[in-house]
Amino acid sequence: MLNLLKNxxxxxxxxxxxxxxxxxxxxxxxxxxxxxxxxxxxxxxxAQQFIQDELAKxxxxxxxxxxxxxxxxxxxxxxHGGKFWCVDPLDGTGNFTTPMPLFAISIALIExxxxxxxxxxxxxxxxxxxxxRGQGFSFNxxxxxxxxxxxxxxxxxxxxxxxxxxxxLAIKLVTEKHYRSQRNIGTCALEWxxxxxxxxxxxxxxxxxxWDYAAGLLLAEEAACIVTDFAGNHPFAKSQLSxxxxxxxxxxLSKTWQALIIVDEKP
Length: 267
What we know:
Layout: H1 2-26, E1 31-33, E2 39-41, H2 42-58, E3 63-66, H3 71-79, E4 84-91, H4 93-96, E5 104-111, E6 114-122, E7 127-132, E8 137-139, E9 142-144, E10 157-161, H5 167-175, E11 181-183, H6 188-196, E12 202-209, H7 210-222, E13 226-228, E14 242-248, H8 251-265
Parallel strand pairs: 3-4, 10-11, 10-12
Antiparallel strand pairs: 1-2, 4-5, 5-6, 6-7, 7-8, 8-9, 12-14, 13-14
């Protein structure tokens, strides 16, 4: 599995350095809007095709689910069974087109309904975050030893996406001081990677897509983080294309967030 991970890391780095970065610097990539209003560029599509082709060379029997596929194709890949790659070829397209240097490539291998291998690559900083289930979290090829975080939520900084929370909960988090501070950097992949790397202590998001959290969830769990949905269930407890996310650097923070969220999520 570690040899496979190295090959996947090389594919991600190749796509990042040779497709994403040149297009980011030139800012000439043609962009359109999807039906949901989100931006897609020809760079997203070019990177996805490259990654899909390269992954197929590793093992053509493994399926593929990418952000830039139709929902019908995504659902078919999700429910087909067996192994499949889950890929976001350019997470943070809005940042990419601004231009703001915060975007990443996210690749996960899903087997038996859960991620078993993952990497997230930041081409701007040349940072690689990766993991194999049961073998720990690595940063730039070096296995990291999780550092226990014991401080209370009031001393923590993390990522909150307010626009995808229900209004009462969003107002509560804005007006009441439950944490030290929050950020939203416009790329779920890097938020997951930075949580795993200890650069933040929590993520609260009202609805991420599978390709937003598939790789990051494994990185976080291998870094000893706790990940659930808003009801306290594991995001991979059932087969789905989207899920609310709550991820924390320890169990105490998870329980604190659950108490805040469960109260406000009730009708």
